[in-house]
């Protein structure tokens, strides 16, 4: 183990380093002859050129085969998800008619949500469409598709205009049913979808009288298809409002609202929000 004990001086280290940088005996620069350095540089240059070319090719193929305005792969779930407004925690709407503080949150949430549906707002960003049929549009690129007007006036007693408390003050609350957007989806396959609501496992209690806005709880076909955020940035979802007119007080109800139309699945036991929504309603007095 002689090398262990060898103590090199600083000069010796310098000498060794110099020899490493340029070895006059073997004519090696940093361990390789200039010829080898040229070859290795050429090898690496060629290697990186090929790598870059492959990357560019992959990017090019990807960009030319995908459309920036529609997703290439869509979820196979072809029935829309359904949500409600107001959107309370755990989907539990619970309030005491005599205690305005207990329902003010729902009323504020609805007023806030519906302000995007003010006639003054909608008239600026969308057009009046002919009801009764899908609104197909051609054109390509960002902001190339117009949107159809859905004014909150359509929701009449649930518009928050005549009755700013949406019936919460009198125990006849409104709940808005909203279908999630699916690009290029044609709900109902030509038949207008509608909403129906019922009480789950609550015999002998019943849902009482309910009224839907618009009439018959329909989503007019003219609001479909939705073309996507980039081509159709002004799109606003059509809504159906359901107003519970005579739900019993101080009872807990589990309410299911379904969207009915050909091709819409609303009874999948594993998908609670596919084509339907279940929420809790508890009106105290
Ligand atoms: C929408 O209309 C309501 C009621 O008329 C009003 O209070 C609210 O400020 C309006 N919101 C917008 C954004 O125009
Ligand atoms: C969307 O709304 C803006 C105003 O906010 C309007 O300038 C634009 O033309 C609208 N887009 C379409 C496609 O109508
Ligand atoms: C819907 O459009 C089709 C063809 O585009 C037409 O034949 C049909 O009459 C329209 N239906 C309504 C209710 O306007
Ligand atoms: C809507 O509200 C008005 C005024 O409160 C009332 O007269 C009318 O009966 C209501 N309509 C329904 C269907 O509840
Ligand atoms: C939609 O309706 C047309 C006929 O109107 C039918 O040929 C087609 O199979 C239907 N599509 C679906 C998904 O139900
Ligand atoms: C609502 O449904 C009834 C019965 O199906 C029908 O007579 C009425 O015309 C419908 N109203 C609208 C606005 O579609
Ligand atoms: C709701 O839609 C279903 C399925 O399309 C239909 O059978 C039913 O008559 C509709 N109800 C109303 C009130 O329009
Ligand atoms: C609702 O509020 C009133 C007044 O504060 C109270 O007397 C009543 O007990 C409350 N009801 C329930 C079910 O908590």
Automatic annotation (TrEMBL):
The ATPase pump is composed of two subunits: alpha (catalytic) and beta (regulatory). Interacts with alpha subunit ATP12A; this interaction is required for the formation of a functionally active pump and targeting at the plasma membrane. Interacts (via N-terminus) with alpha subunit ATP4A (via the P-domain). GO terms for biological process: cell adhesion; intracellular potassium ion homeostasis; intracellular sodium ion homeostasis; potassium ion import across plasma membrane; proton transmembrane transport; sodium ion export across plasma membrane. Pfam families: Na_K-ATPase. The lineage of its organism: Eukaryota, Metazoa, Chordata, Craniata, Vertebrata. InterPro entries: Na/K_ATPase_sub_beta, Na/K_ATPase_sub_beta_sf. One of its GO terms (cellular component) is sodium:potassium-exchanging ATPase complex. Its main location: membrane. Keywords: Cell adhesion, Cell membrane, Disulfide bond, Glycoprotein, Hydrogen ion transport, Ion transport, Membrane, Potassium, Potassium transport, Signal-anchor, Transmembrane, Transmembrane helix, Transport. The chain crosses the membrane at residues 37-63. This is Sodium/potassium-transporting ATPase subunit beta. It is found in: Apical cell membrane; Membrane. GO terms for molecular function: ATPase activator activity. This is the non-catalytic component of the active enzyme, which catalyzes the hydrolysis of ATP coupled with the exchange of Na(+) and K(+) ions across the plasma membrane. Belongs to the X(+)/potassium ATPases subunit beta family. It is a single-pass type II membrane protein. Gene3D superfamilies: 1.20.5.170, Na, k-atpase alpha subunit.
């Amino acid at each position: 183990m002689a090398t262990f004990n060898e103590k090199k001086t600083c000069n010796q280290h310098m000498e060794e380093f110099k020899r490493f940088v340029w070895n006059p005996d073997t004519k090696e620069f940093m361990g390789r002859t200039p010829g080898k350095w040229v070859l290795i540089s050429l090898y690496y240059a060629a290697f990186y050129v090929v790598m870059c070319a492959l990357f560019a090719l992959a990017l090019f193929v990807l960009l030319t085969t995908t459309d920036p305005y529609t997703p290439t792969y869509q979820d196979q779930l072809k029935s829309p998800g359904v949500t409600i407004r107001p959107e309370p925690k755990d989907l539990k709407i619970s309030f005491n008619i005599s205690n305005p503080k207990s329902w003010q949150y729902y009323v504020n949430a609805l007023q806030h949500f519906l302000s995007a549906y003010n006639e003054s707002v909608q008239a600026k960003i969308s057009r009046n469409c002919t009801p009764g049929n899908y609104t197909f549009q051609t054109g390509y690129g960002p902001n190339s598709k117009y949107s159809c007007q859905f004014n909150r006036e359509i929701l009449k007693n649930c518009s928050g205009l005549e009755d700013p408390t949406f019936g919460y003050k009198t125990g006849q609350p409104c709940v808005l049913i909203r279908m999630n957007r699916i690009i290029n989806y044609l709900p109902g396959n030509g038949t207008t979808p509608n909403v129906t609501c019922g009480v789950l496992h609550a015999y002998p209690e019943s849902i009482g009288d309910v009224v839907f806005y618009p009439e018959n709880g329909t989503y007019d076909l003219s609001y479909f298809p939705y073309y996507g955020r980039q081509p159709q940035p002004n799109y606003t979802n059509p809504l159906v409002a359901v107003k519970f007119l005579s739900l019993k007080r101080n009872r807990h109800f589990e309410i299911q609202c379904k969207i009915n139309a050909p091709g819409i699945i609303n009874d999948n036991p594993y998908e609670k929000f596919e084509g339907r929504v279940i929420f809790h309603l508890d009106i105290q007095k």
